[in-house]
Automatic annotation (TrEMBL):
Gene (name only): ymfB
Alphabetically ordered keywords of this record: Hydrolase, Magnesium
Species this chain originates from: Paraburkholderia dioscoreae
Cofactor(s) needed for function: Mg(2+)
Protein's UniProt name: Phosphatase NudJ
Alphabetized GO MF terms: nucleoside diphosphate phosphatase activity; ribonucleoside triphosphate phosphatase activity; thiamine diphosphate phosphatase activity
Catalytic activity, EC: 3.6.1.-
Similarity comment: family membership: Belongs to the Nudix hydrolase family. NudJ subfamily.
Subunit-level organization: Monomer.
Domain Nudix hydrolase: 7-137
Keyword presence, Oxidoreductase: no
UniProt xrefs under InterPro entries: NUDIX_hydrolase-like_dom_sf, NUDIX_hydrolase_dom, NudJ
Length: 159
């Protein structure tokens, strides 16, 4: 039997600021209700920028226009009975438009909230992961990389 190939999970997240407050989602997780930036998994055939635009819209009903990459984060979670799971998270910041009132949120999303950095800092036990605050702190510190910092090379079908 061939051993299973280990692969990290690639995720994207969006930091959207409006009047000193940040768009977050409250979502159902295996650990109960948690707060997170709009975030999700990269899907086959997408660029990272396309993924963060899609995930933000699906989770918040707000359109998102990425302006910069805040950072790339790696985290590993142990899971009983296996090797655990590793995530590579690409966090972008940008502008968010107004919500589409006709658009339903992803099923696991309970609601969207606008919270200040201090409000988020005051409730770390409610964060989905420690990356919620790490990414926000990096954003607040002015960490920005141009969108073309990550190059996407597409290869068409083999001839």
């Amino acid at each position: 039997m061939k051993p299973e190939t280990w692969l990290p999970h690639v995720t994207v997240a969006a930091i959207v600021e409006r009047d000193g407050r940040f768009l977050v989602v409250e979502e159902h997780t295996a650990d109960g209700l948690r707060l997170n930036q709009p975030a999700g998994h990269l899907e086959a055939g997408e660029t990272l920028v396309e993924a963060v635009i899609r995930e933000t819209l699906e989770e918040t009903a707000h359109p998102f226009a990425p302006e910069a990459l805040v950072g790339l984060y790696m985290t590993h979670f142990e899971r009983p009975g296996n090797e655990g799971v590793t995530y590579l998270r690409f966090t972008y910041c940008g502008a968010g438009g107004g919500p589409d009132p006709e658009r339903a949120l992803d099923p696991d999303i309970v609601r969207t909230l606008w919270m200040s950095a201090d409000e988020l800092r005051a409730c770390p036990e409610r964060h989905r992961t420690p990356l919620v605050m790490q990414c926000l702190d990096d954003y607040l510190a002015g960490r920005r990389f141009p969108l073309d910092f990550v190059h996407t090379h597409s290869v068409g079908p083999k001839q």
